[in-house]
Amino acid sequence: MTTSRRLAERKVEKFQKNITKRGVVSETSTKKGKDYPVGPVLLGFFVFVVIGSSLFQIIRTAASGGFA
User: Which UniProt keywords apply (predicted)?
Assistant: First the structure.
């Protein structure tokens, strides 16, 4: 066997092993629990900005007599 043929066979063997492992996920890598993707501080800030801006818009509209 030449070096390139041995190398090719080794690569094919490694590839075949990866194919049999596809879709198999260990349980340690899966997330369990109900963690939020954002922290509570960031979520609170977002709610503050959204509600604050809507209240500001309502007050501004009411002060101008209902016409924007």
Answer: Endoplasmic reticulum, Membrane, Transmembrane, Transmembrane helix
Query: What is the Cα–Cα distance from 48 to 68, expressed in whole angstroms?
Result: 23
Q: How many helices (H) and strands (E) does the chain have?
A: 2, 0
pLDDT in tens, 22-32: 666 666 655 66
Q: Element (H or E) spanning 6, and its range?
A: helix 3-21
**Model's pTM, two decimal places?**
0.42
Residues 6 or more apart whose Cβ sits within 8 Å of residue 33: none
Amino acid (1-letter code) at residue 45? F
Residue listed under structure tokens 């501004």: 60
Q: Domain limits of the chain?
A: 39-67
Assigned token pair, 18: 């990866």
State how far the Cα of 22 lies from the Cα of 63, in Å rounded to an integer. 63
